[in-house]
Structures are given as C-alpha cells and as structure tokens.
Amino acid sequence: MLNEFISKVKSTGLAKTNRYRVTIATPALMTGFMNSGRLITLFCESTSLPGQVVATTEQRIMGETREFPYSKMFDNITLSFYIDNNFEVKAFFDNWLNYISNTQNKITYYYKDYIAPTVLIEVLPMDSEVSMYSITLHEAYPKATSSIQLSADSRDVAKIGVNLNYKYYTTSHTNPKQFDIAQLTTTQPDLYETMLTVKDPDTNRFINELLGR
Fold first, then answer.
1. Domain limits at 114?
2. Is 39 helix (H, G, I), strand (E, B) or coil?
C-alpha cells in the first residue's frame, strides 16, 4: 500500500494551493470597469473552493427517524486582493457595491444588472497554465468587503477581503490524458498525423474517443 501511494504521488503529483486563477465577468452595470478585469485576476491574493451542503429534513418511518435531502445549499466564499497604488482594485469593488445599492439616491438596482454572470476559479498544475479543474460561480455579487487597517508603523501591503454570494456553482474536470492527446492537433501536428496512420483499429478508435470524434 505504501509503495503504491509513493508511486502514485511520483506519477501524478499533488495539487498545490498556490496555483490558481480567478476571473470575474464584469457585471452589466460596470462596463466602465472592463479594463480592471485583468488587474483583479493578477492581484487575487487568496481564494477558496467553496463547499456545499445537502439540506435535509427528518422523517419518522416505522418508528425510525431518518434524514432525507430536499435541497442543496452553497457556501459564500471570501477572496482577498492586493490593492494597487492607484486603488483601482478597491474602486472596482466600491463601485460594484454601489451599483447594487446606491447610498446617495437609495436605489437598489435590478438583480440581472449587478450580478457577475460568472466567477471562474481555476486550479492550475505546476507545469502548465491550463486548468485541469475549475469551479464556476453563477450569478455572483459581493455581499461585503472588509475594512482596511492603515498604520504609520506598518509596511504591509494593503489588502481587501471580498465576501461573494452566488446562486450556485458548477465544476469542470479535464482528464490529463485526454487533454495531452487533444493538444497534439496544434502543438505537434506531425506526431498527431503519425498516430492517425496506425493500422491497429483499436488504437485508432481509442484516439478518436479521447478527441471526442
């Protein structure tokens, strides 16, 4: 068992928590902040992969009490961002919250206009920028942002915490073998063509299945 574990770790590796990428789709009301998206991605200091809970209710059947599921609930997530010298990151979330509920005119805007259609959280392998696993939050918006402590005695980089609410999330997982062979069509076309000339029908069938043909 131990040898099998060591062999598997050597062949597949273990996921690192510092390899990730966060991409926020700009809400409809924030078209003026389209150029901030890349900065938000680069300055995301930490995030989490959200959990989920199956809500249950107790029912008594023949004297025995059991829990039965009736819905699924999703946890909010908190992201932390470094704040740039121009405070563009802070302004992005300040304005987003203001587009949800305006403090001056007391207007709460339409839900469809202030939500981010998607927030994509990708986990990246050590040797690639192509994600093998990702979570997409649907219909997300900031519920709260953290205060920022300033001090004359501190040399720390300013950060802001953002608590995101969302409707639900979906996941995506790519089989590494499928990805590697599929990439041959563009990265190594000569090798790909050679593979297609293999006379063994079982091998060709396997390759085409991996490529979704």
1. 13-174
2. helix
What does the alpha-carbon distance between residue 154 and residue 177 come to, in Å, rounded to a whole number? 48
Residue-wise pLDDT for 139-167, tens only, equals: 999 999 999 999 999 899 999 999 999 99
Classified as helix, coil or strand, 191 is helix
Q: Could you give phi then psi for residue 119, rounded to 5 degrees? A: -125, 115
- CATH code: domain of residue 18: 2.30.110
> How far is it, in rounded angstroms, from Cα 174 to Cα 184?
16
pTM of the complete model: 0.75
pLDDT by residue (tens digit) across 89-118? 999 999 999 999 988 888 899 999 999 999
The answer on pLDDT for 191 being more than 50 is: no
Collapsed DSSP state (helix, strand, coil) of residue 148:
coil
**DSSP-derived 3-state class of residue 143:** strand
Residue 81 is classified by DSSP as: E
Report if residue 7 sits inside a domain: no
In this predicted structure, what is the pLDDT of residue 198? 44
Q: Is 134 left (phi over 0), alpha (psi -120 to 50) or beta?
A: beta
* Dist. CA 22–CA 41, nearest whole Å: 5
**In this structure, what token pair is assigned to residue 168?**
């639900």
Side chain identity at residue 17, one-letter code? T
Q: Which residues of 182-192 are buried (b: 16+ CB within 10 A; e: fewer)?
A: bebeeeeeeeb
Q: Is residue 2 part of a domain?
A: no
DSSP string, 1-29: -HHHHHHHHHHH----TT-EEEEEPPPGG
